[in-house]
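Cross-posting from the chemistry board since nobody answered there.

I work mostly on the small-molecule side, so proteins are not my area. We synthesized zinc ion and want a rough idea of how it might sit in this target. Sequence and SMILES are below. Is it possible to get a predicted 3D structure of the two together?
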Amino acid sequence: MASNTITVGNVEVLSVKDGFSAKRDPTVTFPETDIAQWREFPSILDSNDEIQSRYGSVVIRSEGKLLIVDTGMQTATGGKLLDDMRGKGVAPEDIDIVFLTHLHPDHVGWNIDLSTGKPAFPNARYIAPRSDYDYWTQPDVLAQAEHVRLHVMPLTELDLLDLFEDGHKVTDELITVPTPGHTPGHTSLLIASAGERAFILGDVAHSPAQAHYTDWNPMFDIQPDISRPTRHRVLDDLENEGTLVSAGHFPDPGFGRFVRLEGRRVWQGI
Ligand SMILES: [Zn+2]
């Protein structure tokens, strides 16, 4: 069985999850695709021609700090992020920093524990890209974004949210990398420690099928004309450099590499 933990130099990365999405018709999620293309990926597509997305987060230990990257959906099918963390030895109280790649509902869902109305990570600062926060808090966008009103604005009111600019160093080993398009301020995280590197992808890609069909934009991309070139650039770089990747929506535990086999780029989970 694949391990839930990887080490990158002196950094430890633990895969946790908030369950899985409902099963979906992939040609609805990815409107430019047809089912014959999806059938090229029998490990992704189930026998009913449907796909299911994992709501994955990672817990990162770096320079004495404990981070969680993204906080799931909470209301998702089987959404149990805090229980999954505890089962893997991490208490929500231990988290120092909650790092949000972007402010979509399935990435901020456990910022606030809806059963108590309090932050689910009581000892943490929450950090998010300023450019994404600026987008989502525009009055007309915010009016349509209940998840931001429930899971982001309370953090602002409690003075628990810090906004960072591009190229921010969370620790000396964790550097933010702007990867816009999926949302305007979407941000990935580069881990670089003791000569080793790994990349927390966020929603640059949602399915391993995009390793090959890199043009495919899911319906969730807010700026598809920006997300597509971002995806090409990022996946090309990760492939060329052989970088270890953590992909939150890819199959459990979401660690792997983009590699080229017989002329075709594929996702190779580890
Ligand atoms: Zn997203």
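Reply from a structural biologist on the board:
Welcome over. Reading the output above for you: The CA atoms of residues 18 and 80 lie 5 Å apart. The chain has a mean pLDDT of 96. Happy to explain the token format if needed.
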